[in-house]
Amino acid sequence: MQITSASQLLELCGERNQSLSHVVAEYEAFRAGTTVQAVRERMGETLQVMRASVEKGREDQGELSRLITGYGRLFAEADQKGCLLGQSLFKNAILYALSVGQYNASLGRIVACPTAGSCGVVPGALLAAAEELGSGEEELIDALLVMGGVGIVSAAQGPISGAEGGCQAECGVASAMAAGAVVYLAGGSGEAVFGAASLALQSHLGLVCDPVASLVEVPCVTRNATSAVTALAAANMALAGIPALIPYDEVVGAMKAVGKALPESLRETSLGGLAATPTGQRLAQRLQEKHRL
Amino acid sequence: MAQIGLFDIVGPIMVGPSSSHTAGAVRLGLAARKILGSQVKRARLELHGSFAATYWGHRTDVALIAGLLGMAMDDERIPEALDLARAAGLEYTFAQADLGDVHPNSVRIYAEGDADSITVAGSSIGGGRINIFELNGFEVSVDGSYWVLLTRHRDTPGVIAEVTKVLAVHGINIALLDVSRKARGSDALLLAQTDDPIPELAVEHVRRIPQVLTVRTLPCF
């Protein structure tokens, strides 16, 4: 059993007359020589780690991160004071994504999804949506399996690292994975899942990887939050029946081609973009002087 | 095409901030610890390329020491690894080094225990995955996803057949097999990566092969 593309995965579901989440679980069970039940249990444990990283990240003061300081906490406090705009879905997606990103920067335990640099996007969008929808544990596990399916399809056809493809390959793919999962959780079809994934990734094409001082902090952590919000917007548009027009597989192909066209300075080398700004360089220099080998 | 693992995409579960510079570094340290097979007392770590350039931001140093102490990449004690090393009596030094034409995220580790010492060089190749490319001066390729049988033996005809026969008798399937030597008739190394764990009895049988000098098994890491 292989998963090579979105169109092939959807065909597989049709042939077997099985749900998207079940086909992904069976694929992994077959691949790893285990059972569908064991795959679901492991996904349940992964969900617990995601939840814990949201909770701990929200309290994190940022003592171990180098540039950022307790972003989840700042956002939560501002929300409690009533300083923020919008409803809980929108605000929680930002809060959870910031919290997980902050926790990662603070040497906390997270789920790389698909990478550590983009670890806040899926928990942000998906856990906020699950609260809004009142989803149960098994439904969330189904959505996470679908999210993983979108990720496998992406990795089979394109880069999922900033060094290869820029931030579009990390936060962009994470946003596509999250958008697909949210649509599935909301009861959307397999086609709508990949429609949402397509819309989310379309909004990230060209995004460069330009971390200040080579840290997974600026702009990574706030970008995780905006990518989570983009995932929700893409999910809503797909649920409304707005077509992506360009199939997900082709968007991944475009992302790969754009990644190749990006100069090395914009692929995680911290030689271009925000890292190369006067302020970015000043911050990097200050930190480097403090921590010489 | 290799099948992509679901939990390689939704995962790994790891301590941040970077899968390549933190999680992969923990695994490289842990690999050295497991290859040594005992508590590490002294270590020298040579950081190459991007590891040397950005270790201070991604805590590559802390991560490597955590691995040498036996921690896995999701161990929540990783941030305190340097303090724990002091408490455990592990002495270590870091240096910058040019390891040649290797992956930018590479390290060479000299690790010493009470009875033995080893040299391991490896790369963190992304997403927490690693590749050990040098072991005690021999060229190898180990990613930690298989069980490993490692022998040092005299380079003579028939040794490899004898070793693989022992594995066959014990019903152990070999996934990958590497053989290398420094010169004809000198010390040679056999590295079998297997789908199944290697029982102590099989190790004992390999040890009895006259030309075999040392035998070691490694679990997956």
Describe the protein.
The complex is a heterodimer of chains A (293) and B (221). Chain A is an all-alpha fold. Chain A has a single domain, classed as 2-methylcitrate dehydratase PrpD. Chain A is built from 13 helices and one strand; from the N terminus they run αααααβαααααααα. Chain A has helices at residues 6-16, 20-32, 36-59, 71-80, 88-105, 121-133, 137-157, 162-165, 171-185, 190-202, 220-239, 248-261, 278-290; one strand at residues 109-111. In chain A, helix 10 (190-202) packs across helix 11 (220-239). The termini of chain A are far apart. Chain B is an alpha+beta fold and 221 residues long. Chain B has two domains: 11-142, D-3-phosphoglycerate dehydrogenase, domain 3 (60s Ribosomal Protein L30, Chain: A); 147-218, ACT domain (Alpha-Beta Plaits, 2-Layer Sandwich), CATH 3.30.70. Helices cover 31% and strands 35% of the residues of chain B. Chain B has seven helices and eleven strands. Chain B has helices at residues 6-9, 19-36, 49-58, 60-68, 81-88, 159-169, 200-207; strands at 13-15, 42-48, 91-96, 105-112, 117-126, 129-135, 138-142, 147-154, 174-181, 187-194, 212-218. In chain B, the strands form two sheets. Chain B has a six-stranded mixed beta sheet with strand order 3-2-4-5-6-7. A four-stranded antiparallel beta sheet of chain B has the order 9-10-8-11, with helices on one face. In chain B, strand 6 and strand 7 (138-142) form a beta hairpin. In chain B, helix 2 runs parallel beside helix 4 (60-68) and helix 4 (60-68) runs parallel beside helix 5 (81-88). The mean pLDDT of chain B is 93. The chains are: A mainly alpha (293), B alpha+beta (221). Chains A and B meet through helix 2, helix 3, helix 5, strand 1 and helix 7 of A and helix 1, strand 1, helix 2, helix 3 and strand 3 of B.
